[in-house]
């Protein structure tokens, strides 16, 4: 039998990479030989956070172990103020970190032990300690610091000194958080009047420009972050004093920045940030914005003009901040570059605007909306009016054919206003309270075939999401019996939502995915893995499953297949229809596509 130690080193290295941290801890106890193999991996990542901090350093044995194996530490994370001080006096020093995370905002009142204070080796400020750790590790590639690291006793100049000390040689990712849970205001429902926001923006922008002119020579004297590709900045919500925008002037030293993620930024900072990005970050093409206030329309439009190359990836929380004019500007500058677009709430986006988006973007790979658990009663998905889109095509008013094609891998969309004369009642048996007035029932299949034709261009599509996303579980529980959930029977779910979440329970006038309606037009989508038709009036039966088995060989699952077709006039067929589908699925347990049975 071949022993582990007799294996070639290359094979041992491969085996080690497939183990988890708990495995390393077990392996070092096997023998002295195994200890030599697995000790470097065991100590590669050290996390000393929250309740684990005291256990790590309260004994001399723990401190000795940290010192003994410091040469192996590459990734370090702590929320413990005492450990930051300890790192500055520990011998030998940790000098080979590639990733460092220090989050101290919840430890602002932490005190040093009397013994450490008497030693006389403890720095007198948090920032000085962090700076020393940074200078000891010039090879850092990822750095994550929060506002607890940015202060001296009087907080004067701490952040500026710290940014100068950040190693520039290899740093690829930088995350800075100014968020303070002790006094930050929640963004939800927060609002500033437009006049107040505008006045504040003008005042801060003028002050900011003056400050930038003063600091620009100083910043340009410092080393550039030539390797830095990604920055994440978390502000402190709407409180203007939470973050001085001038602190971000170091961005002029980031000429190769490609991606920026912004969270909880206040209005003044949002107004000033585009100035820096336009000035220096000419490779920027990816933006992710979360938790914004309701008054950043103008700053956001300015921010969207900050990319010199055109946006490649764009993730926005909602359309109320962008406005339709902002979307038109975005498409004008980025229609040929945009690959990923996520809009969590499209409440202010018209259906024809969505068609304009699909008709303009030629390189789009992912179109994303809200995810499960994000949806509230007011959330609106990106929506296409199928009937209007078809009529414009027939009348020749505009070229409304979708430009999205083979590059598309993920599409999340709500397709509405499809003529469905077969839909006569709700899932629970109640008469429909909405009519199909204005929809020509004779165009039922023509409208669907037009949409199928547009979808068929996406020959590399892996996931098609046309179903209803699950509601926020907390809001759902406040309106529905907590014992119920969104995973309940579709009929019971819709009936429970009927009064409180009108329109969120089920979607009736939409694609049916039957062969009769033109499903065969999609035979070229050979890469499709997931089809999501949850809580929609689809007509996927045994015939359709057999077709998908042959034509979509990689199809793994259909979310929302469990329909009884209860909306149909032929309601008596519902149980038989469902029984046939269930029997087919039981006979194909590994997946729907033929590739699972080769």
From TrEMBL:
PROSITE patterns in the record: FBOX
Classification via InterPro entries: F-box-like_dom_sf (IPR036047), F-box_dom (IPR001810), LRR_dom_sf (IPR032675)
A Pfam entry, by short name: F-box-like
Annotated coiled-coil segments of the chain: none
Domain F-box: 1-46
Protein name listed in UniProt: F-box domain-containing protein
Origin species: Linnemannia gamsii
């Amino acid at each position: 039998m071949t022993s582990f130690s007799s294996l070639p080193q290359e094979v041992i290295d491969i085996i080690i990479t497939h183990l988890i941290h708990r495995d390393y801890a077990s392996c070092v106890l096997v023998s002295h030989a195994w200890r030599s193999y697995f000790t470097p991996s065991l100590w590669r990542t050290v996390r000393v956070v929250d309740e684990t901090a005291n256990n790590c350093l309260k004994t001399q044995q723990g401190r000795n172990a940290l010192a003994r194996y410091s040469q192996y530490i590459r990734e370090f994370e702590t929320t413990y103020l005492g450990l930051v001080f300890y790192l500055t006096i520990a011998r030998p020093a940790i000098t080979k970190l590639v990733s460092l995370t220090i989050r101290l905002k919840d430890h602002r009142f932490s005190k040093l032990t009397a013994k450490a204070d008497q030693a006389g080796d403890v720095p007198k400020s948090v920032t000085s300690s962090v700076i020393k750790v940074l200078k000891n590790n010039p090879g850092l590639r990822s750095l994550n610091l929060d506002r607890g690291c940015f202060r001296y006793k009087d907080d004067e100049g701490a952040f500026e000194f710290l940014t100068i000390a950040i190693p520039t040689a290899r740093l690829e990712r930088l995350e800075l958080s100014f968020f303070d849970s002790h006094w930050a205001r929640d963004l939800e429902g927060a609002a500033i009047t437009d006049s107040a926001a505008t006045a504040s923006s003008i005042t801060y922008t003028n002050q900011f420009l003056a400050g930038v002119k003063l600091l620009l020579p100083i910043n340009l004297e410092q080393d550039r972050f030539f390797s830095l590709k990604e920055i994440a900045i978390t502000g402190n919500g709407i409180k203007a004093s939470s973050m001085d925008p001038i602190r971000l002037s170091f961005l002029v030293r980031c000429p190769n920045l490609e991606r920026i993620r912004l969270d909880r930024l206040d209005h003044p900072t949002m107004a000033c940030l585009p100035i820096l990005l336009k000035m220096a970050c000419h490779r920027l093409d990816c933006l992710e914005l979360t938790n914004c206030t309701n008054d950043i329309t103008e700053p956001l439009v300015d921010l969207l003009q900050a990319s010199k190359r055109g946006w490649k990836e764009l993730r926005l929380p909602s359309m109320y901040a962008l406005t339709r004019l902002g979307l038109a500007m975005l498409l004008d500058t980025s229609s040929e570059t945009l690959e990923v677009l996520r809009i969590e709430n499209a409440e202010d986006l018209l259906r024809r605007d969505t068609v304009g988006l699909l008709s303009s973007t030629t390189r789009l790979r992912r179109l994303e909306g809200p995810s499960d658990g994000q949806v509230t009663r007011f959330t609106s998905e990106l929506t296409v009016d199928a009937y209007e889109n078809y009529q414009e095509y027939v009348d020749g008013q505009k070229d409304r054919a979708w430009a999205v094609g083979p590059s598309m891998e993920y599409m999340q969309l709500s397709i509405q206003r499809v003529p469905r004369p077969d839909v006569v009642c709700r899932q629970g048996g109640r008469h429909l309270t909405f009519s199909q007035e204005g929809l020509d029932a004779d165009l039922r299949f023509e409208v669907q075939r037009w949409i199928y034709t547009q979808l068929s261009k996406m020959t590399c599509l892996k996931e098609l999401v046309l179903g209803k996303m699950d509601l926020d579980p907390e809001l759902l529980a406040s309106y529905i019996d907590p014992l119920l959930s969104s995973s309940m029977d579709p009929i019971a779910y819709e009936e429970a939502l009927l009064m409180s979440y009108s329109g969120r329970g089920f979607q009736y006038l939409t694609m049916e995915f039957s062969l009769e309606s033109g499903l065969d037009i999609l035979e070229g989508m050979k890469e499709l893995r997931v089809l999501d038709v949850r809580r929609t009036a689809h007509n996927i039966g045994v015939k359709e499953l057999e077709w998908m088995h042959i034509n979509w060989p990689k199809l793994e699952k259909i979310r929302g297949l469990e329909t009884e077709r209860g909306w149909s006039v032929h309601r008596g067929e519902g149980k038989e229809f469902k029984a046939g589908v269930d029997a087919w699925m039981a006979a194909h347990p590994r997946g729907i596509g033929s590739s699972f049975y080769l």
